[in-house]
Amino acid sequence: MKKKKILNPIKITKPTPIEELKNFGRKIKVFLKRDDLNGLLISGNKIRKLEYLIADARNKKCDTIITCGAAQSNHCRTTIAFCKILGYDCHLFLRTKDKPEYTGNLLLDELLGATIRFITPEEYQNRMEIMADYAKSLKGKKAYIIPEGGSNEIGALGYVDCMREMAGFIKKEKVEAVYCAVGSGGTYSGLLLGKKLLQVPVELNGVIVCDTIEYFTNKILEICTRAIDKFNFKIKVDVPDINLIDGFVGEGYGIPYPEEIETIKMLAKKGILLEPVYTGKAFYGMLKDMEKRRYKKVLFIHTGGIFSIFAYARDLI
Ligand SMILES: Cc1ncc(COP(=O)(O)O)c(C=O)c1O
Question: Is 285 contained in some domain?
């Protein structure tokens, strides 16, 4: 069977800058890939995945997007913002235990005009079936379902692009390691595919912010294997290529802890805003991990997510 060529994305963002973290006061140089500044409503990492996923939806002549996530999902907020630009309908299935507060991303989802359905954590286990049934119920519409976090072999292509943007810098500056948050695995998968495709000599360290190393190793392997197969990439990805760091989840997804909050406050004083769900845990995890390594230069991917800080005001002050 003929393999598919790589998809043409709907590019609405520009390459993001790489900056050195100034006044850091440590021997190691830390650079930031400022994906938090990228074009669409300062979206963060999700837009890169959606540039490919929504291109796929458009190729399939879909006019409606359905996706899911936590009530404060950055991915869901970015999806509705992207849909508004293209004039697509957008339906969100948001996971919540209690009645959620309309703040942060959820407030934006509502303002941007998403159709929102709240589901319990138990129902969320069957999210793909729930979304598929719902898609069938939308008469006269052709729906495209995007999985949690936009993390599949198509969404991951967005982070191949990110690695392409960083490859020259990494080689020139001799950056030894790239760190990122791992929340649904797509960002890490794309970076890993990009590293292999472009032969970038750098270690790729993902700090998990939920679930387990085993869960993410399998998920990343699956996303990479599907991408290699679908797009006929001439590379191999195996378990030893996947370098994940545990120990920074705390009590669970979206639950901050004191060291993380201190890290967020420290960075805020340097003009960089992290948030408690992903980048706060990942940056703190990077600082602790670096103590065990001999790196001189590292690069942290700032994957954005700024709006969720408003939902954590009580933890942050
Ligand atoms: C701000 C932010 N950073 C990092 C991540 C993690 O990326 P991924 O889901 O691709 O692992 C996410 C989403 O999960 C996010 O919203």
Answer: yes
Answer yes or no: do 63 and 121 share one domain. yes
Round to whole Å and give the CA distance between 180 and 156.
14
Q: Where are the alpha helices (DSSP H) in 174-243?
A: 186-197, 213-231
Q: What CATH number is given to the structural domain containing 236?
A: 3.40.50.1100
Give the end of a domain, one of 129, 150, 171: 150
Q: Ligand 1, residues 42, 180, 184, 208: which to mutate, most atoms within 8 A of Cβ?
A: 184
Closest residue to atom 13 of ligand 1, CA basis: 183
Does any ligand 1 atom lie closer than 6 A to the CB of residue 304?
yes
Taking a C-beta distance cutoff of 8 angstroms, is the pair 162, 190 a contact? Answer: yes
What are 221-254's pLDDT values in tens digits?
999 999 999 999 999 999 999 999 999 999 999 9
Which residue in this structure is represented by tokens 């760190």? 179
Distance 140 CA to ligand 1 centre (A): 33
Which pLDDT tens digit goes with each residue over 264-312? 999 999 999 999 999 999 999 999 999 999 999 999 999 999 999 999 9
Domain check: are 53 and 190 in the same one?
no
